[in-house]
Design goal:
Layout lengths: L21 E5 L32 E7 L3 E8 L8 E6 L6 E5 L4 E2 L5 E6 L13 E6 L6 E10 L2 E14 L11 E2 L2 E2 L2 H12 L4 E16 L16 H5 L8 E10 L3 E4 L13 E10 L6 E3 L4 H19 L16 H5 L28 E5 L4 E5 L18 H9 L8
Parallel strand pairs: 2-9, 10-13, 10-14, 14-16
Antiparallel strand pairs: 1-3, 3-7, 4-6, 4-8, 5-7, 8-9, 11-12, 15-16, 16-17, 18-19
Helix pairs in contact: 1-3
Bound molecules: zinc ion (ZN).
Zinc ion binds next to helix 3.
Length: 419
């Protein structure tokens, strides 16, 4: 079959076009999967964070942890379905990754999924050269159609101390408060952190639920919702966050409802700003309360979608704790391009499908992570879920980019004064 490609060069050829017959994508769609990292598929150059060892790969990058395996899909974008493709490694020094499917290299499996194993941190030795994954046309010696870098990272552990809070109203007797639940059942923190852990694994960070506590806070105005610090009322988010603190841990505080937001994540150098006196995370488990209207934004989700939503919310706040800022430093409504919405640091986890809401224009489709039923304006409707990508590349034009490197630096010393 003959193929004709028309390429326009604008500005006297300064804008160069790259034809992409095949590309790398996530091996699965939907919720977090520890074996299926999200590729950083912006552009074909490899702008890397400071002190990272470069590779010669032109193409995508995704994170792989030493000693672990991950799957990635080779997608045929603009090539015959029957065109034979082969996958191999262009070996760096030392060998940082191993191709386990097709083992040692060979024909691309029919489902397009390849598997790799991390062997050595890419920055382990001076003089390291990164390994490049190649997709070639026809055979292992055919022309290269696509390249990617699996950036191999030494595992780091971020220990979490989880605090489940019962808030007692000042007018009520002790024991009258209500504990946060998952649909009336006890919080399944093991499952929640298993999914959060899956999101951070491509950054080589293991989120470990090291300690858990049942806590009681007295003298709050409401029995299930702390107020924002600025409301001038008793029982604020700050009161919860400073009530218990375990050193050298990421302290995560769970409450039933929050005051107008889904979560708060405070990094160490934000302490003392906006009335927050302790680093850590506050996360709602049941919904968001609007004290102005009295409405509660509840999560009417099937259990899987609900866990996915709570997971993304919590992972986003852990991102803030690990120094990450909103995508290109834009707050609500944030950027609306598909790539930005795939990032865990996009400010909106749930994207309302309401075309009349200026926060949601233009209407945003599912960006690959599914959707969930939620009650946003008093009626239940499906809305797209945000993604959980952490960026590896570092584009100078995007503030806060190179998220994996930033998060890893903070994960090593979660509450130390670094600045
Ligand atoms: Zn945020």
């Amino acid at each position: 079959m003959a193929t004709r490609i028309t390429v326009q060069n604008i500005n006297g050829g300064r804008l160069r076009h790259v034809v992409v017959p095949v590309r790398f994508t996530r091996a699965v769609s939907g919720g977090p999967d520890i074996t299926a990292p999200d590729p950083d598929d912006r552009g074909h150059v490899m702008p890397i964070p400071d002190n990272w060892v470069p590779t010669t790969a032109r193409g995508f990058s995704f994170g792989l942890t030493v000693g672990e395996s991950a799957r990635i899909r080779v997608e045929r974008v603009d090539i015959d379905p029957s065109a034979p493709l082969a996958v191999r490694l262009r070996i760096g020094t030392p060998h940082q990754i191993q191709l386990t499917r097709p083992a040692g290299g060979g024909a691309l499996p029919a489902d397009g999924i390849i598997e790799l194993r991390g062997i050595v941190d890419q920055a382990a030795q001076f003089g390291t050269k990164g390994t490049v994954i190649e997709v070639r046309l026809g055979s292992l010696e055919g022309p290269v159609l696509a390249e990617a870098e699996a950036h191999v990272l030494t595992p780091l552990t971020l220990n979490v101390a989880a605090h489940i809070h019962t808030l007692h109203p000042e007018s009520g007797p002790p024991g009258s408060g209500t504990k946060p639940t998952h649909n009336g059942a006890p919080l399944d923190l093991d499952r929640l952190f298993e999914l959060v852990n899956a999101i951070y694994r491509p950054a080589g960070v293991r989120i470990r639920l090291a300690k858990r506590f049942e806590r009681e806070n007295f003298d709050f105005n409401a029995d299930d919702t702390p107020f924002l610090a600025g409301r001038g009322r008793k029982g604020t988010e700050n009161d919860v966050m400073k009530s218990f603190f375990v050193p050298n841990h990421c302290n995560v505080h769970f409450v039933r409802f929050m005051d107008g937001s889904g979560g708060v994540g405070i990094r160490r150098d934000q302490v003392g700003i906006d009335g927050i006196e302790q680093s850590g995370i506050l996360s709602m488990m049941e919904g968001i309360r609007d004290f102005g209207t009295g409405r509660i934004f509840r999560l009417y989700l099937d259990p899987d979608s609900k866990f996915q939503l709570l997971t993304v919310l919590l992972a986003h706040e852990i991102g803030h704790f690990l120094e990450l800022i909103h995508v290109t430093d834009k707050n609500v409504p944030g950027r609306v391009d598909t790539f930005s919405r795939r990032q865990i640091m996009h400010p909106n986890t749930l994207v309302s499908a309401d075309p009349t809401n200026p926060r949601d224009r233009p209407r945003l489709p599912d960006a690959g992570y599914g959707s969930a039923d939620s009650d946003i304006r008093g009626k239940i409707e499906p809305v797209p879920l945000g993604g959980h990508l952490l960026t590896l590349k570092k584009y100078a034009v995007r503030p806060g980019d190179g998220e994996v490197a930033i998060a890893r630096a903070r994960a090593r010393q979660p509450n130390a004064v670094l600045y």
